UniProtKB/TrEMBL annotation:
Keyword set includes Transmembrane helix: yes
Gene3D superfamilies (alphabetical): Glycosidases
Catalytic activity: a beta-D-glucosyl-(1<->1')-N-acylsphing-4-enine + H2O = an N-acylsphing-4-enine + D-glucose; Hydrolysis of terminal, non-reducing beta-D-glucosyl residues with release of beta-D-glucose; beta-D-galactosyl-(1<->1)-sphing-4-enine + H2O = sphing-4-enine + D-galactose; beta-D-glucosyl-(1<->1)-sphing-4-enine + H2O = sphing-4-enine + D-glucose
The name this protein goes by in its record: Cytosolic beta-glucosidase
Pfam families, A to Z: Glyco_hydro_1
SUPFAM superfamilies: (Trans)glycosidases
EC number(s) per entry: 3.2.1.21, 3.2.1.45, 3.2.1.46
Record: active site: E374
Enzyme class label: hydrolase
GO biological process: carbohydrate catabolic process
Superkingdom of the organism of origin: Eukaryota
Entry keywords, A to Z: Glycosidase, Hydrolase, Membrane, Transmembrane, Transmembrane helix
Length: 528
């Protein structure tokens, strides 16, 4: 890859930090959501997650070992502003935690890339105002962003306003799969997205007007999107359906920022369906002329998260069906059964889709500066698997397609693998694992163990790409040898942990039972 290309890994606050109610942190919508039974697989929570709040030095040493150029992490809004409202309360311990993290990264020559929002809205704002359904979030978030610029902007030069706002809107306010768990079909997601886009623009203008000249940083947004490929590339209806798939996903947020308004196809489809339902106005909100001008051009770079691809074809939904974001698109998604799928049923390895998505962005949005902010693969892990050859194959395939896109002229400047650690995976709990490092969650110390993919990715970074097939083959063999050795150590350590648990829990229990039985026998003896 070109000299100066940036390699990194990422994580997010709620998924890794833990310490959900420690040192003055306020509750987030994810704290409230996970504490309700039945919302998350096995009712697991991120209360302690990876204990990242207490293991900053350990995790930065791991980053140093990986030889990454940058680390993408998010700030927890309620950790530094417990109620989400600046005038009410600031948490100095939270601010100090992020200051220490940023300083430690820079001391180790690792560039911090900071996301202001990775889904953990302060719960107070959800309860008082309805969260992203309410336009008051625009000013509250802008106050929070300006506090971050004030406290950290002298050292942080890459800011992301929102990470994957599509999931915030669709899963939080349409299907209810994610916090805050609202099912506002057909309207909720569009309204939330509308306020998020306006908020992003306001924060960009705040930075541009107040902080840019002094701090010389950049502000962007990170959008996650799959690629949609027509089932029949010779069919105009399938090609149109694939176009809608992308526009309703990526274009929903990128089009206003780069072209000033929602995609025409999105406005047409939602508007037409709203009319057919007898509504006076479209369920998709509209921007005023002033708002379009204000929003257009508000991104110094585009962060792109990408995981997988779908085949797409036309499918018309009957009017009798309840209105929803998904039925508005008039399409069906398919997968090829031959595509590798090592873990969850949504994440198939389809590397060629990545190159097509990156080229689509180049064509649609004027070849913007791109940082890949999330790309990786998870596995549903029943037992410890350190020799993750499927992740190595995924990495190799997707990075290779990114390289082809660079050769196509796409302006990609950095790549962030997702993710550094196994962590809390939202409504899936700890059942899916994305990490380069295995975290033993059942051990109270939450130790981290490198997988084969960590060793392999380190080699990619050191070589700034792939030197030749023979050497890349050697990387693979060495990585698999290393993981086998680590696995043996882990197995021994697990046995020790189980023995410790036996001594800590089982033996005192047996001893207590023996005493109770002795008391009962003694009582019976004395009575007789």
């Amino acid at each position: 890859l070109p000299l100066g290309f940036l390699w990194g890994v990422g994580s997010s606050a709620y998924q890794t930090e833990g310490a959900w109610d420690k040192d003055g942190k306020g509750p987030s919508i994810w704290d409230a959501f996970t504490h309700m039974k039945g919302k998350v697989f096995r009712n697991e929570t991120g209360d302690s997650a990876c204990d990242g709040y207490y293991k900053v030095k350990d995790d930065i040493q791991i980053l140093k070992d990986l030889k990454v150029n940058h680390y993408l992490f998010s700030i927890s809004w309620p950790r530094i502003m417990p109620t989400g409202i600046k005038t009410e309360q600031l948490n100095e311990k939270g601010i100090q935690f992020y200051n220490d993290t940023i300083n430690s990264l820079l001391e180790n020559n690792i560039t911090p890339i900071v996301s202001l929002y990775h889904w953990d809205l302060p719960q107070v704002l959800q309860e008082k105002y309805g969260g992203w359904q309410n336009r008051s979030m625009i000013n509250y978030f802008n106050d929070y962003a300006n506090l971050c610029f004030e406290k950290f902007g002298d050292r942080v030069k890459h800011w992301i306003t929102f990470n994957n706002p599509w999931a915030v809107a669709e899963k939080g306010y349409e299907t209810g799969e994610h916090a805050p768990g609202l099912k506002l079909g057909g309207r909720g997601a569009y309204k939330a997205a509308h306020h998020i886009i306006k908020t992003h623009a306001k924060v960009w203008h705040s930075y541009n007007n107040t902080w840019r000249s002094e701090q010389q940083g950049m502000v962007g947004i990170s959008l996650t999107s799959g690629w949609g490929e027509p089932v029949d590339p010779h069919s105009q209806t399938d090609r149109d359906a694939a176009e809608r798939y992308i526009q309703f996903h990526l274009g929903w947020f990128a089009n206003p920022i780069y072209r000033g308004d929602y995609p025409e196809i999105m406005k047409n489809y939602v508007g037409r369906k709203s009319t057919q339902q007898g509504l006076g106005t479209s369920r998709l909100p509209t921007f005023s002329v002033q708002e379009k001008t204000y929003i257009k051009g508000t991104s110094d770079f585009l962060g792109i998260g990408h995981f997988t691809t779908r085949y797409v074809l036309q499918k018309t939904f009957p009017l009798l069906e309840a209105s929803s974001y998904h039925t508005d698109r008039d399409l069906a998604e398919l997968v090829d059964p031959k595509w590798p799928a090592p873990g969850p049923n949504w994440l198939y390895s389809v590397p060629w889709g990545f190159r097509r998505l990156l080229n689509f962005i180049k064509t649609q949005y004027g070849n913007p500066l791109i940082y890949v902010t999330e790309n990786g693969v998870s596995v549903k892990e029943q037992c410890t698997q350190l020799c993750d050859e499927w992740r190595i194959e995924y990495l190799k395939g997707y990075i290779n397609e990114m390289l082809k896109a660079l050769n196509d002229g796409v302006n990609v400047k950095g790549y962030t693998a997702w993710s550094l650690l196994d962590k809390f995976e939202w409504n899936k709990g700890f059942s899916e694992r994305f990490g380069f490092y295995h975290v033993e969650f059942k051990n109270k110390n939450k130790p981290r163990y490198p997988k084969a993919s960590a060793d392999y990715y380190k080699k990619i970074i050191s070589a700034n790409g792939f030197p030749n097939p023979r050497e890349v083959g050697n990387w693979y063999r060495k990585a698999m040898d290393t993981c086998s050795t680590t696995h043996q150590h882990l197995a021994t350590g697990s046995l020790t942990t189980r023995m410790e648990m036996l001594s800590e829990i089982v033996l005192p229990t047996v001893f207590t039972l023996c005493i109770l039985i002795s008391i009962v026998l003694l009582t019976l003896y004395l009575r007789s």
